[in-house]
Amino acid sequence: MAEPIASFASVATTAALFFSGALIMRGAGCTINDLWDRNLDPHVRRTRLRPIARGAITPFKGIVFTGFQLLAGLAVLVQFPLPCLAYGIPSLALVTTYPLAKRVTYYPQAVLGLAFSWGAIMGFPALGIDLLSNSAALTAAACLYASNISWVVLYDMIYAHMDIKDDANAGIKSIALKHEHQTKQVLTGLAVTQVALLGAAGMAAGAGPIFFLGSCGGALVTLGIMIKRVNLKSVKNCWWWFVNGCWITGGVVSIGMAADYISRSLKEAESQSTPDGRELDA
Which regions span the lipid bilayer (predicted)? Predict the structure, then answer.
């Protein structure tokens, strides 16, 4: 028997909490990154005027501000069911150490993806689904997590092209430097991987055709357009696609998911009604 679909109220509340938590923790991640990179940022044209890099804010004040950000993130986290604490706290290690990756590997974007995609796992226990006892949910969570990692690496590779010359001079490693002459091929591979894993997550979760057409198909089209049109030699163009491309692809994926959720909810409600429309007794 299929799992009952979560109520609109629980989905809406959970989504609002995740949005708030993501906003707060993204800010904390940026502050931590600026603290680690305070001696590197002055050598990169785009980042040289960041508050800590230019000396407008001391590292100590940055640490204090980070503490408040993390406390705010914790305040959001405790609103979720208790198991979410066990899933959420380990992500802090990735958020904290990500900036170090660019010093030792050409693939720091992969570490960023591991950190920023963590919500894909937490969404299941947030709705009361035990991943350890539900193999289908575990498969869906793993595929969704991996899909989002591919997405993060894809977008951050475009982002990294804005600083490619300065990064090379400053000794900062990135996937853009490693694959400078094969970037669009790599981006294409990441896009295909992202959509394939998103589809696999949908299959494991029992998604309907609206999800596959809207979310997966929409993502494939929007990513394809972005990869074709982005001018990797233009800082301004890379920035435009980094900012807007994220909303475009994220938007079609979200709309497809929402439409599929509404469709499945209506079908479930209909199946629980008698032929004359009266609700069956529980």
Answer: 6-25, 110-129, 135-155, 186-204, 210-227, 239-259
CB-count exposure of residue 208 (10 Å: 0-12, 13-18, 19+): middle
CA distance from start to end of the chain: 17
Q: Residue-wise over 82-95: b if at least 16 C-beta within 10 A, else e?
A: ebbeebbeebbebb
Model confidence at 88, in pLDDT bands (50, 70, 90)? Answer: confident
Nearest to residue 47, comparing CAs of 203, 162, 144? Answer: 162
Domain boundaries, the chain: 8-270
d(CA 148, CA 164) in angstroms, rounded, equals 24
Residue 273: beta bridge partners? 279
- pLDDT digit string (tens) for 246-265? 899 999 999 999 999 998 88
- CA–CA separation, 203 and 142 (whole Å): 12
Give the C-alpha separation, 142 to 101, whole Å. Answer: 23
3-state secondary structure of 217: helix
Rounded to two decimals, the pTM is 0.86
Print burial letters for 187-201: b (CB count within 10 Å at least 16), e (below 16).
bbebbebbbbbbbbb
Task: Provide DSSP, 160-184.
Answer: HGGGHHHHHHHT---HHHHTGGGHH
